[in-house]
Amino acid sequence: MSTTWLSRATSSPRTTEAVTLALLFASAVTGTLLSYWTMPGSREPWPGILLSALACAAVARRRSHPVPVLVATALCAVAEGALGYLMTPLLFGPLLAAQYSVNLRVHRVTAWCCALVAAGVTVAPGAWRSELHSGWIIGIVNPAAWVLLSAALGSYVRVRRDYAAARAEHAAREREEEARHRVVQERMRIARELHDVVAHHLALANAQAGTAAHLARTAPDQAYEILGKLSGTTAAALRELKATVGLLRQDTDTDDGLAPAPGLAQLPDLVDACAAAGLDVTVSVEGRARPLPPGLDLTAYRIVQEALTNVTKHAATRAARVALAYGPRTLTLTVTNDAGTTGPADRPGPGHGFGILGMRERALAAGGTFHAGPRPEGGFEVACALPLDSHDESTAP
């Protein structure tokens, strides 16, 4: 159930952002009204509601300007405390969201300095008010503790994302090393075959040519017979040499350091390759397509490539659909296939290989989300959302 809601949230970033801001505003308004009803001598709730609206409006820019948003929400929280409202986590929820975003996106030292300053300014109104001196835990410790807790949560999520990125990088490096090892082994095998072809056939041809030259005057018939066999020997050598060297001329043996990294621009070539393997792939694009950074473009291409490979290997159906949805801040990739006649093949379980694990690690390393599982109407679905407004792992929304 949680993965379903997560998939819906990532596929509709605008709706998710609107719901988040609405919940923050409702929380702040609830804190204002609660303070108005419980605190003696509190002012009317309208100033607090207005400040809460301003703070929530600033929170909408937390991804692009985290530190200015934290300053704006902290000033709103201090103003609410100075007006006599009780500093509860409900009231300064926008400040907590801004502090979480700062610890998620800004350098660690800067983020924790901002957290200490924010905790200090939220404590100031409670320290000035004499009626809260007896309840210093509510007026002083409580606001600072909530701010530092949101900062710790943001740092924890950042560490998890950094760990996922490092794990994906380590796995990619291991796969590259394994690929290089296999290439070296294959080239050694080809070198041995070349040596056998050249050494055997050329040595035989050299012996036949020498014998024919020796017999040319004394036994011309035998010399002609040997020369006839010589042409067959050289022809066989050429055939084996051509077959062996042909392995070295395959397109898969390229210089990875010089070849450009693949991206979504190569998606038509991937569709043609799948068609050659018997898989009919339909591609649809929603929204305005735009160039992506190389790292994000490679991640998107590899996820689509691995998903189509899994359909070719495991699914009973011979058709798949690829949907690209370009949002204002998110690129959503969805690869689906219908159920075939053999149901179990359409429901690969989580331990049947490393394809789904690799796709998940790539998506998380880019700061996105990933979901893979059977569809309610049958078949299988792979869906991921990759952030477009930030391309560093630590700055994913």
What is this structure's SSE topology?
Layout: H1 2-11, H2 13-38, H3 45-59, H4 66-82, H5 93-105, H6 108-128, H7 136-215, H8 220-248, H9 267-276, E1 280-286, H10 294-314, E2 319-326, E3 330-337, H11 355-365, E4 369-374, E5 380-387
Parallel strand pairs: 1-2
Antiparallel strand pairs: 2-3, 3-5, 4-5
Helix pairs in contact: 2-3, 3-4, 3-5, 4-5, 4-6, 5-6, 5-7, 6-7, 7-8, 7-11, 10-11
List keywords for this structure.
Heat Shock Protein 90, alpha+beta, disordered C terminus, 397 residues, five-stranded mixed β-sheet, Single alpha-helices involved in coiled-coils or other helix-helix interfaces, 3 domains, single chain
Low-confidence stretches: 252-259, 341-352, 391-397
Q: In percent, how helical is the residue content?
A: 55-70%
Tell me about the largest β-sheet: 5 strands, mixed
What's the mean pLDDT score? Answer: 77
Order of helices and strands, N to C?
HHHHHHHHHEHEEHEE
Shape: elongated
Strand content: 5-15%
Number of strands: 5
Widest sheet: strand ordering = 1-2-3-5-4
> Between the first and last Cα atoms, what is the distance in angstroms?
21 Å
What is the CA-atom radius of gyration, in angstroms? 33 Å
